Structures are given as structure tokens and as C-alpha cells.
């Protein structure tokens, strides 16, 4: 601060010397409309920065009082300080700044040009501002200060240090209106910037109406995490009574971890307790551990409608990059039953949850090689039945296509026959533990555990050959599976019961297939100039393949056996039908397969310098013929199609056709429909999906509706009324799905539904969203969901309504937008338990 006044003194001395022969008065007025001056003197000792000042009307120097006065839009800058006001006075003798506004000649009692003071990024406003550069203390009369996303207003704000303020008759709000919608008021407030706000007493005003009061308050006043009590919410539940929810404590342990513990208490007999531990190290790892439980005791033990339950949940997430080639990803969820959510949650996604999925994966690949390794733990828990399926673990090693006879310097333009030979290899170890429901003779269901494991190895050999426009690719696929147990079925002729017995011991079996494929690609281009279309392009990708596989169900391969029932029938079964990788394929296969892909494209005339290309239709077909089958050798014909009409409409689907005669009591017989009924094929399956979406220009261009009428719409009606504005931002999406399954001409299953979503804003502050699905055959609406949002400046209102279904109900919430005041809200909601 000393440097500023040294500069100012030097400036006054230079000014007095320049005009000593012309002026004898101690005051010198610069009578021009705009005065702008920069003192760049740096010859005096400690001066290390310039002083800039300007005024619209005049700058006055008073040498006797050592004052600089700026009138009308005064602006003074030094280092990180800047002061703007109608009148600015710099006092050299006490190192202070004084500034204030001038009376408004139009609005009585109002002031113009009130001071705005900047200290770095901090901003202070008021009717009068005084500030001492040396002590860095100041006072603001009827001032406003913005800090940490909030506004502090007071009759008088006194700065006693760089981070400590005292406010008389202060108010705090996150609303930026001159007359805020809500605020906390206190006659005495102390602000410790970056730490806390202390006030006593504290009143909450909504629209200048007091709502509640507390004797004193200590509130955090800084960004980031901080330890402290988690503010609870009070309410009422139709089943559990009045409650106090999420009361707890948050502990910011350090920059890398934190811990939160909170609970809910219900007056009718329920207690919840939850804890969450989080940790993170940037670019290395991050994760969390959540543990929760609830205990419910409603009614007496002898009551038929009593609710007695103890439920728990454990959730763990972890993501870590060990090195550029190794990573870990974990998302584990364990819970006692679905009652954990039914008793404690009103979230629709939680209530509809049917399975708790856990997944842990360690991935590793070796840079510069085709090798990779993956270790996985997976658990699927059915929350309705209690059944579980676990893989503990699954380990997969993969070596992708490799060429053993190529060197690093081999030229790809002139490969020898042995250099195109390739192989790929994979090995998977899987140990599985299942818990499934089984029903005994009396009809009682119990959960039965089953443990199975095995190792599967797959080796593929290939030798692709290029012949003119064709690619010939012979291949061999070999599979070998090892198990630590197998089964034997025993048939009891007395009661005709079959018992299955596990037989421990190492068992192995093998199966393979071989074949060759012939592929090509044909492109046809047709130039035209019709309706702006420059050309058509049709791409054909025919493929012909032959596959051979022996019948591995024969005794020679030692994977299958049989037993004879009481009627003398031979019932085949496999030793490995219950194992994790299954057993060998059944039946010999000598199949010839043919597939044809079609892609239809068009090219339109160039727009400016860019040509537009569109894919009109993608149509694929496939069929095969098994020479080794004793009947029904021709497979079904499968078709799939997809088309996109600009960005408006997307259509896709599939169909299947069978060529053999069907008899109700027998099924498909070995006679073609053409020979019996002069019909080529029966439709056995069909599916179509149509998706479309539209939106207003304001949404598609990202421009908001300003409510202004375009030039072409500016006209005056008979009664001088402006035309109505129909440009409401909106978006609509539809999805139609139809599925038909016909295993026989007289039996079919079909479904058809329409899903839609509509979102629009009636005004700038009102938004409505409606989503629903309609089942055409059942003639009922499914899963409708309606949301209404209202922007109330610093408040917001959300109304969510589910009019139909098991979880029908509504939720209305009015809350403050500011995240630091997220618990300042009023909520009313219903769910399947009632209104609360």
C-alpha cells in the first residue's frame, strides 16, 4: 500500500511543478468530459506496479488534503484491486479509499453509481464502501457480497481481516434477485471465508414471510468436502409412521478418502443404518464400499399382518489401472432379499429390480503379442426366488490369429503358401456354483446347491487362399474339454424312476469340425440423373461353405451312453450333460450353406462441395442343406433387413420360412410343401421394429425459444393484437414392435406394442414429459410415466406420476436449486405403501 501512495505523491509533485507558474490555488480542476490517466513511474523505491484511474466528468487533486477525487463513473485500479463508483476519493494521509453513489433524480430514495469493489476474484457492493489498503479492512453500508455461490446482504458489512467478515442484520441466499425469493436472516453474522458461517439466531424467510427459526447456526462455507453432521429430513410414511431420515455424520478423512454413516428412524418400529466408504487416487484407482441394513418390527408376533424382517445389503465398486496393459473393474452387490428395497426404497428402479448382479474382472494383455488373459467372478442372484448362479472364477486365455511361418520382415504382397497358414487358440477354466429351487414328491421347494467345474480348449487352423475374385478358406476347429466329475443315470424298473448320480474323477472328451468356405464380392454401379439422384450402388456378398462333423453321440467317442426303460426303449444320455460346458454335439453333419448379402445405396447431387451417400436397404439371406441327416435336410430360410430413411425413420426386422409339410399330430414330415400343397414355404417367424423421432427447430439447432415473432409475422390485427407464438420447444419419439412366432400353421404367438415419449415446454419455465407403452393385443397401457417440471428461478418443482400398475402413485417436490441447500425442500409422495 505504501507503494501506491509513493506513486501518488510523485504524481502530485510533478503536477505542481508543471503548473507552478500558472496556478496559485491548491486545487486544480481538469475540466474535460473524460479523464483517463496511468501513472507509470517506477523510479521511487518500492513502486512495483502502475496506478490507473479514470472518470467521465473530472479528476480533482487536493494537495493540501492529499486527496484524489474522481467524479462520475470513477474507476481506480492497482494490482488486484479495482473500485468503481459515481464518486471515488483516495486519502493519502490514512491510506483509505472512500466511495459512494449519487441520488437518482428519477427514482426517489434510490442511488446511481453505487460502489462495486473487486479484490482479486472477490466482489463487494453497497451504498457506501470504505477500504484501508494498509490494513486490508473495510466497511460496506447496505452491502452485498458474493462468495462460494451465495449472496450475503447486510445493513453493514465489516471486513476485519482478509477472510473474516462481520455482518449486521445480515441475510444469506442463493437467489440472485434484488428482492430474493428466500433467505436466511440473522441480526449477527460472522463469516470465516473458506471455513464457516456463525449466526444467532437464524430465521428462514420465504417471500419475506418467516417460516421457522433456530437459536443459532454454524454452517460450512467452503467448496469441496468437509466433515460434519448430515442434516436430517422429517416426514411421515403410511406404513412406518413419522420418521427422521438420513441423520448421520460425514467424515472427510483426507484428500483421498471419506466416510459417511447415516440412519433412518421410524416411530412404528423400523430402523435403517447405512455406511459408505469412498476412496480415490487420480489416474490410479477409485472405489467405494457400502453396507446397509434395516430392522422392522411392526405388530405383535401373533398378528397375522405383522411385519418382522431383518435385511442387509453390501455393495463394492473398484476400478484400477495397474499399468497400461492391466486393469481391474469390480461392481459387486449382495443382499438378503428384495425386501431390502421393498422396505426402504421409493425409487422405481430399485422396486422393479429382479436380480442383483456382481461382476469382477481382471484384464491383462501383452503388448506386441496376440496374447491376453481375463479373470472374472460373476454372481446372479434372483431376488424373487433366492436362486443364485456364480462363476468362481472364470479364467480365459486367448491367442488371436497368428502366422507361425512368417518372419517380421515377410512381405505381405508376395506370400508363399505356408506363410498364409494361421492358427488361434483359447483356453477357459470355469468353476460354477449354483443354488436352484427343486420340488420334491410332496411339492415342497428347497434350494439345492450344485458345484461344477471344467477346462475347455479350442484350437482353430486356417489357410486362406486368394483365387482371382474369390477367397477360399479351408478351416479346422478342434475342442477338448476336461471335467472333474461326470454322471450316471440308474433306471429302477419297479417304480420307473431315474436317479442321477455324480461320479467323481477326471474325464475328458473331444470333438471337431472341418470345412471350407468360398467368398466373393460383386459391386454394380448405375449412373442416373433422376430426382436429384446421381447414382445407385448394389453390393453383393455371396458366400458358400461346406462343413463336416462326425456323430459324437456314438459309443466310439465315449461321451454318450444309454439305459433301457420298462417299455424296452433305449434312452440315450451324456455323461457330461450337467457340466459347465455341456457335452458333444449330436448327429453327423455334412452341410452345404449359402448366404447372400445385399447392400443398396444411392448418391445424391453434391451439396456445395460434399456428396451425400445413403444406405437405402441392407438385406441378408441364408440357408443350408445337411447331407448326413436322415430327413428334413433343408434348413429354414432366414432373412434379415434394415433400412434408414434419413434421420426420421428406422425400420428393421427378420423372418424365417420352412419348406416342409407340417402335420398336427406328427410335426414336420420329410415332404416339401411344393409337392403336397403347391406352396413354397410356411412363415414360421416374423419381426418388425419401426423407430422414429421428431423435435422442434429450437431443440435440433440448440436455440431456445425467445418468444420473438419473425419479421414475416409482424403484422397488426384488427384489434392491434400481436399474432400468437406457436413455436413451443418439443420432441416426440415412437417405437413400434410386432413379433409373430408360428411353430406350426395352426399355432402362433404374437405380440405388438407401441412405445412413445412426448416432451414439450409450454413456456420457458414449464416442461411436460410423458412416456407410455400400449399393448395392442391386450388393449392396455403399460408403464405410463408423467413428469411435470416448473422452474421457479432459485426454486424448482418436480411432479412425477405413475397412474397405473403395482407401483402407481405420485411424488411432488419443491426444493431450492442450489446444491449446498439440497435439503431445503418440501416433498409429498405416494407408493404402494400409501401416502406420506
Summarize the structure.
The chain is mainly beta and 836 residues long. It contains five helices and 55 strands.
Secondary structure elements and pairings:
Layout (H helix, E strand, L loop, with lengths): L1 H17 L8 E3 L5 E5 L11 E5 L2 E5 L4 E12 L2 E11 L4 E5 L1 E2 L7 E2 L3 E4 L2 E4 L2 E5 L4 E11 L2 E10 L4 E10 L8 E11 L3 E5 L1 E5 L2 E6 L2 E4 L7 E3 L2 E5 L3 E14 L2 E10 L3 E12 L3 E14 L8 E17 L2 E10 L3 H6 L3 H4 L3 E11 L5 E12 L5 E15 L19 E18 L5 E18 L2 E3 L2 E23 L4 E24 L1 E9 L2 E17 L10 E5 L5 E5 L14 E19 L2 E17 L10 E9 L3 E10 L1 E4 L3 E6 H5 L4 E14 L1 H5 L28 E15 L2 E14 L5 E10 L4 E13 L2 E8 L6 E8 L8 E7 L2 E2 L1
Antiparallel strand pairs: 1-4, 2-3, 3-5, 4-5, 5-6, 6-7, 6-10, 7-12, 8-9, 10-11, 11-13, 12-13, 13-14, 14-15, 15-16, 16-17, 16-18, 17-20, 18-19, 21-23, 22-23, 23-24, 24-25, 25-26, 26-27, 27-28, 28-29, 29-30, 30-31, 31-32, 32-33, 33-35, 34-35, 35-36, 36-38, 37-38, 38-41, 39-40, 41-42, 42-43, ...
Amino acid at each position: 500500500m505504501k507503494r501506491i501512495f509513493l506513486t501518488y505523491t510523485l504524481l502530485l509533485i510533478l503536477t505542481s511543478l508543471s503548473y507552478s507558474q500558472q496556478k496559485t490555488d491548491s486545487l486544480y480542476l481538469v475540466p474535460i468530459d473524460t479523464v483517463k490517466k496511468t501513472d507509470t513511474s517506477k523510479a521511487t523505491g518500492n513502486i512495483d506496479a502502475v496506478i490507473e484511474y479514470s472518470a467521465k466528468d473530472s479528476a480533482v487533486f487536493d494537495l493540501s488534503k492529499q486527496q484524489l477525487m474522481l467524479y462520475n463513473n470513477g474507476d481506480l485500479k492497482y494490482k488486484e484491486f479495482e473500485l468503481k463508483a459515481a464518486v471515488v476519493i483516495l486519502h493519502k494521509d490514512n491510506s483509505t479509499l472512500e466511495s459512494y453513489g449519487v441520488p437518482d433524480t428519477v427514482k426517489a430514495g434510490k442511488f446511481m453509481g453505487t460502489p462495486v469493489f473487486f479484490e482479486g476474484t472477490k466482489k463487494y457492493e453497497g451504498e457506501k464502501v470504505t477500504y484501508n489498503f494498509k490494513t486490508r479492512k473495510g466497511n460496506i453500508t447496505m452491502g452485498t457480497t458474493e462468495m462460494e455461490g451465495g449472496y450475503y446482504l447486510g445493513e453493514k458489512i465489516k471486513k476485519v481481516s482478509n477472510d473474516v467478515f462481520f455482518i449486521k442484520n445480515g441475510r444469506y441466499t442463493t437467489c440472485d434477485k434484488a428482492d430474493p425469493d428466500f433467505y436466511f436472516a440473522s441480526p449477527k453474522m460472522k463469516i470465516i471465508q473458506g471455513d464457516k458461517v456463525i449466526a444467532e439466531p437464524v430465521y428462514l424467510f420465504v417471500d419475506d414471510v418467516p417460516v421457522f427459526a433456530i437459536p443459532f447456526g454454524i454452517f460450512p462455507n467452503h467448496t469441496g468436502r468437509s466433515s460434519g453432521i448430515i442434516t436430517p429430513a422429517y416426514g411421515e410414511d403410511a406404513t412406518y409412521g413419522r420418521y427422521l431420515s438420513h441423520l448421520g455424520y460425514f467424515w472427510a478423512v483426507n484428500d483421498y478418502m471419506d466416510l459417511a454413516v447415516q440412519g433412518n428412524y421410524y416411530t412404528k418400529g423400523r430402523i435403517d443404518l447405512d455406511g459408505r466408504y469412498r476412496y480415490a487416487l487420480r489416474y490410479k484407482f477409485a472405489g467405494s464400499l457400502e453396507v446397509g441394513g434395516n430392522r422392522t418390527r411392526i405388530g405383535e408376533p401373533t398378528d397375522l399382518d405383522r411385519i418382522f424382517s431383518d435385511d442387509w445389503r453390501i455393495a463394492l465398486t473398484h476400478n484400477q489401472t495397474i499399468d497400461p496393459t492391466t486393469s481391474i473393474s469390480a461392481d459387486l452387490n449382495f443382499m438378503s432379499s428384495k425386501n431390502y428395497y421393498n422396505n426402504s426404497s421409493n425409487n422405481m428402479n430399485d422396486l422393479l429390480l429382479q436380480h442383483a448382479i456382481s461382476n469382477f474382472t481382471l484384464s491383462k494383455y501383452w503388448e506386441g503379442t496376440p496374447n491376453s488373459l481375463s479373470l472374472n467372478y460373476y454372481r446372479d442372484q434372483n431376488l424373487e426366488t433366492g436362486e443364485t448362479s456364480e462363476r468362481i472364477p472364470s479364467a480365459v486365455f486367448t491367442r488371436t490369429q497368428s502366422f507361425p511361418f512368417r518372419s517380421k520382415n515377410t512381405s505381405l504382397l508376395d506370400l508363399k503358401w505356408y506363410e498364409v497358414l494361421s492358427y488361434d487358440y483359447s483356453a477357459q477354466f470355469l468353476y460354477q456354483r449354483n443354488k436352484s429351487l427343486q420340488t420334491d414328491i410332496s411339492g415342497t421347494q428347497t434350494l439345492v446347491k450344485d458345484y461344477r467345474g471344467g477346462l475347455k480348449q479350442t484350437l482353430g487352423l486356417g489357410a486362406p487362399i486368394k483365387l482371382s475374385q474369390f477367397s477360399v478358406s479351408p478351416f479346422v476347429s478342434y475342442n477338448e474339454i476336461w471335467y472333474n466329475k461326470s454322471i450316471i443315470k440308474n433306471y429302477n424298473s419297479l417304480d420307473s424312476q431315474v436317479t442321477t448320480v455324480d461320479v467323481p474323477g477326471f474325464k475328458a472328451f473331444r470333438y471337431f469340425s472341418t470345412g471350407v468356405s468360398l467368398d466373393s464380392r460383386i459391386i454394380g454401379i448405375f449412373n442416373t440423373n433422376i430426382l436429384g439422384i446421381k447414382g445407385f450402388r448394389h453390393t453383393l456378398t455371396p458366400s458358400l461353405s461346406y462343413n463336416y462333423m462326425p456323430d459324437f453321440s456314438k459309443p466310439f467317442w465315449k461321451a454318450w451312453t444309454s439305459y433301457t426303460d420298462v417299455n424296452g426303449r433305449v434312452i440315450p444320455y451324456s455323461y457330461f450333460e450337467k457340466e459347465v460346458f455341456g457335452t458333444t454335439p449330436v448327429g453327423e453333419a455334412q452341410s452345404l450353406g449359402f448366404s447372400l448379402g445385399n447392400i443398396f445405396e444411392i448418391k445424391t447431387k453434391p451439396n456445395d462441395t460434399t456428396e451425400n451417400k445413403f444406405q437405402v436397404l441392407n438385406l441378408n439371406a441364408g440357408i443350408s442343406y445337411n447331407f448326413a441327416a436322415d430327413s428334413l435336410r433343408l434348413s429354414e430360410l432366414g432373412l434379415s433387413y434394415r433400412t434408414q430413411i434419413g434421420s426420421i425413420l428406422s425400420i428393421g426386422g427378420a423372418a424365417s420360412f420352412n419348406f416342409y409339410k407340417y402335420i398336427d399330430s406328427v410335426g414336420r414330415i420329410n415332404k416339401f410343401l411344393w409337392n403336397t400343397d403347391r406352396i413354397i414355404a410356411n412363415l414360421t417367424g416374423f419381426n418388425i421394429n419401426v423407430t422414429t423421432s421428431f423435435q422442434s427447430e429450437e431443440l435440433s439447432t440448440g436455440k431456445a425459444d425467445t418468444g420473438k415473432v419473425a419479421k414475416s409475422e409482424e403484422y397488426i390485427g384488427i384489434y392491434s393484437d400481436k399474432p400468437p407464438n406457436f413455436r413451443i420447444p418439443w420432441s416426440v419419439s415412437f417405437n413400434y414392435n410386432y413379433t409373430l412366432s408360428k411353430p406350426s400353421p395352426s399355432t402362433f404367438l404374437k405380440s405388438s406394442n407401441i412405445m412413445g415419449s412426448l416432451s414439450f415446454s409450454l413456456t420457458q419455465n414449464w416442461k411436460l414429459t410423458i412416456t407410455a407403452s400400449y399393448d395392442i393385443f391386450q388393449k392396455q397401457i403399460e408403464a405410463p410415466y408423467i413428469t411435470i417440471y416448473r422452474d421457479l428461478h432459485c426454486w424448482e418443482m418436480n411432479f412425477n406420476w405413475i397412474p397405473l400398475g403395482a407401483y402407481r402413485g405420485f411424488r411432488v417436490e419443491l426444493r431450492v436449486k442450489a446444491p449446498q441447500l439440497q435439503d431445503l425442500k418440501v416433498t409429498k409422495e405416494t407408493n404402494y405403501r400409501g401416502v406420506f
